[in-house]
Amino acid sequence: MRWKMKLALSGTGMLFVSALLFVLLGCSTLPTRPVEPAVAALPAGQDTRLDEVVQPALDARPGQSGFHLVSDGVEAFALRGLSGRAAERSLDVQYYIWNDDLTGRLLALELLDAADRGVRVRLLLDDMDARAKNFAIAALAAHPNISVRLFNPFASRRGLFGKAMEAVTSFSRINHRMHNKSWIVDNRFAIAGGRNIGNEYFDASDHVNFNDLDLAFVGPAVEQLSASFDRYWNSEQVWPIESLSPESVSTGALDDLRSQLKAYEAQARETPYIKAMEGHDAIAAARAMALPMHWTPRWQVLSDEPGKATHKDSPMEASAVLVGLTRAVDEAASEVVLISPYFVPGKEGARLLLEQVEAGREVRILTNSLAANDVAAVHGGYSRYRKPLLEGGIALWELKPERVADTGEDSGISLFGSSGGSLHSKAAVIDNRVAFVGSFNLDPRSVSLNCEQGLLVDEPVIAAQVTALFQRMTSPAAAWEVGLENGDLRWGDGRRSFEKEPGASLGRRFQARLARWLPVEPLL
Hints:
Blueprint: H1 2-25, H2 49-59, E1 65-70, H3 73-86, E2 90-95, H4 102-116, E3 120-126, H5 127-130, H6 134-140, E4 146-151, H7 160-169, H8 171-174, E5 182-185, E6 189-193, E7 214-218, H9 220-233, E8 238-240, H10 241-244, H11 251-268, H12 272-276, H13 281-287, E9 294-296, E10 299-303, H14 315-318, H15 320-330, E11 335-339, H16 346-358, E12 362-368, H17 376-391, E13 395-399, E14 427-430, E15 434-438, H18 444-449, E16 453-458, H19 460-473, E17 479-485, E18 488-492, E19 497-498, H20 506-517
Parallel strand pairs: 2-3, 3-4, 11-12, 12-13
Antiparallel strand pairs: 1-7, 1-9, 2-5, 4-8, 5-6, 6-7, 10-16, 11-14, 13-17, 14-15, 15-16, 17-18, 18-19
Helix pairs in contact: 3-4, 3-13, 4-11, 6-11, 16-17, 17-20
């Protein structure tokens, strides 16, 4: 009798909780998306400084685009800031994360200063991160030359409770994010790759700095990237911020933000990071607009459709980036090199990689070690494929964490977090000739859930530069090579050999093992 009553009370309680959630979330529904005319990138012209620098180079190389690999974080920050300062016509900027820190504030000020000069600025951000900075971002939208739009926004604009409840009640929608990263100036110069906007992406953090990659480029490839930006800007997945937070888009808020950013800029000039930039060779070259470019007519801008997650066909067809990268790998003659911080190939991906080895091609892969990876679920998903890949002849390295000794204890880790770790580059090299740089991790989330982009560049110098970075990152000082001994996993660096995940505490290994048991691989 008491058991039946408990069940009844439990059922009543659940109905009460459901009703309460309905009431609490009743006001947290997305407004009707405004129907607005499509807006396109402003065409390249002839009279801006960038036009005058870029056009003669294009005239001398019809049909070609020039590419510059950006592996240095300081250079990556400076190129964005200096090119933004050179903008005279337009700035189209698209990011997954924009941090409220030294580099994030200074680049936000560059957008505001450009708008003050009459430059048209379009800022497109994923709302998973932007929501936390809603009011500052909304303030920018009050500028007559700045438009701000958010990808797949939350209806609730403040508070952890509202965000958590919306994630629970609308998980299938909220789980679809925009991972693209683009910085496009005057439709003449662009930067795209793996870097978000934040100190850790530009070697400016006192804690963890990511190893990351971008491509800076000019030529027809810029127009292709602008076309991708326009698809997102005008898509049904994107809302103008004024339709979500009209009360926050005000001239008063904009005036306050401008004052705060200007005051912060004065303080930032005295920071060691900004002072050290003065002696940087790459920054001097960028100031002189003398960035070394490697030219080729053979390139592809790979970009997923904004509505990718609603695609009903196979993931291979839904992910334009995966299709393009897979095709390039399948055309390899001798060697495939892959760099992916989050590497969960799945059964199909593992099969495709093993087929490369069976066809006589060498396959080498670098990913994060458990000690360097703060996402236990991802490492748990990856670890089940480690032994089959090694048994099939694939060479595998795991990057050591920065500032952690071989036997040292690790710091923070979360089961599903994604903010730490040392490797953030997403890249590939095929036959020492074709290079891929982008936002695409080799994991189920990048394939099926996140919108991604990347560039395939058929240019031997760029490929050699990525290969050199891979060799440096897989050196004994930087990574553990993973192998098999009598069928058991071993990690070695030429000095020591480990039978368990090196540099990782018992607690971290337990979390990874727990995540491996959970049925979460499709979400990783």
